[in-house]
Amino acid sequence: MALHVVVAPVFGTNCTVVSAPGGDCVVVDAGAGVADAVVAHVRDAGLAPRAVLATHGHVDHTWDAAALADRLDVPVVLHAADAYRLADPFGSLEHAGTRGSALASGPLGAALAAAGARPEDYREPGRVETFDAGPGEARELRWGGVVLRAVGAPGHTEGSTLYLAGSPGAGVVLSGDVLFAGSVGRTDLPGGDGATMARTLRDVVARLDPAWDVLPGHGPATTVARELAINPFLAG
Fold first, then answer.
1. How far apart are alpha carbons 48 and 45 in whole angstroms?
2. Dihedral sign (CA 75, 76, 82, 84)
3. How far is CA 154 from CA 18, 150, 203, in A?
4. Which residues does 115 contact at the CB level (< 8 Å), separation at least 6?
5. Alpha helices (runs of H) in the chain, residue ranges in sequence order
6. pTM for the complete prediction?
7. Positive or negative, the Cα torsion across 172, 41, 69, 33?
8. What is the pLDDT of residues 152-163, one digit of tens each?
9. What is the CATH number of the domain that holds 119?
10. Which domain holds residue 215?
């Protein structure tokens, strides 16, 4: 598998094009402002797009999903437990006393505006396919030559997923907002749960082969071995 990363201008989301030797590819985490660069890469590299995936349903990982899916003529794919977020990306982030409109006009709205996007421009994808994977359960997903294992990793959201491409030592874990270099995803947003995240870190992440490389949803790449050694949330 080959990887090409486009960093979104909104919250620095890592959008990754995963391609197989034969040219089939999928796009993972289409954050706001990545569509043109991803389409250009797919065209210039002569790739055959098969799907736009999301590690979870937060809007900073799905903003350009509909636009990319339309332009590449592919479906949007994510865990069934997070599919509801695609219809109401700001409402699904609401806290008691903090409405989606406030989120849209706050830091998230400001970041979108800086990237030339407006909250009212968001479009729900038309073609959506879902899968189900319980905590720690691996489901093989295949699109032509692209084969990923989707591993349920709830806690950040109900449907947070790790995508494993390749094999330990010769592949990567696309960890979304479950695992970062030196940290982990927050659990204080609606659908997040600290106890569930703790179980995911203990029973799923910490049991990954240390030889895996890791590309988080934000920030620099790391390895499972490094995180097991230095990440305070994986200690013990």
1. 9
2. negative
3. 23, 12, 11
4. 8, 9, 10, 32, 33
5. 35-44, 65-72, 100-105, 107-114, 194-203, 224-230
6. 0.93
7. positive
8. 999 999 999 999
9. 3.60.15.10
10. 2-234
